[in-house]
Write a structure and sequence with these properties.
single chain; 175 residues; alpha+beta; 4 helices; 20% helix
Length: 175
């Protein structure tokens, strides 16, 4: 086990399909998994990573191919879907500009474009990977209906003339 072995790094650009001014760039080791990438993305968006989500190997035109899933439903499991935690990034990169279509949280999905933009031949020993290289724009806020339910009910009771749910489209960040 050679601790000073050099490891190549992939740099991915991740952008929201519907908010293309929100971009993240993440450096990650080639032997890390899609789950590592998924969790790194949501450390940068602030979203809860423990939601059913999938990467799809995709064409240049974002046509979805093979699925790589986190917390898949039973039908996907029965169909033998590849699991993120078992899937090394390097096993699915066939192209120096490999693209993955990525759906976060099938219950309330956000769609992302994930594109390999650079291969760095050796990792920096002072950096812990995955590493957020660039963060542009703020990720849209998510209203978690499970957490909001009791809050919404009490606020609505306290002020019946206040159209609470319409006011809830954008919530200030938790402080």
């Amino acid at each position: 086990r050679n601790s000073i072995a050099k490891m190549a790094i992939y740099r991915f650009r991740i952008s929201f399909e519907d908010f293309d001014d929100v971009v993240r760039e993440i450096d990650i080791k080639t032997n890390q998994t899609f789950e590592d990438l998924h969790r790194a993305i949501h450390r940068s968006t602030g979203y809860n990573a423990d939601k059913s989500s999938s990467f799809y190997v995709s064409t240049d035109n974002w046509i979805k191919g093979d699925e790589i899933a986190l917390l898949p439903n039973q039908r996907k499991i029965d169909n033998g879907v590849t699991l993120m935690e078992n899937a090394k990034l390097s096993s699915f990169i066939e192209d120096p500009h490999q693209k993955f279509y990525y759906i976060y949280n099938f219950e309330r999905p956000f769609d992302f474009h994930v594109e390999l933009i650079k291969i760095i031949l050796e990792n920096d020993p002072n950096i812990e990977y995955p590493f957020l290289v660039k963060s542009i724009g703020e990720a849209p806020k998510i209203i978690d209906k499970n957490n909001m339910g009791s809050f919404a009910a009490t606020a609505a009771a306290a002020s019946t003339d206040f159209d609470f749910l319409n006011e809830m489209d954008f919530v200030p960040e938790d402080t």
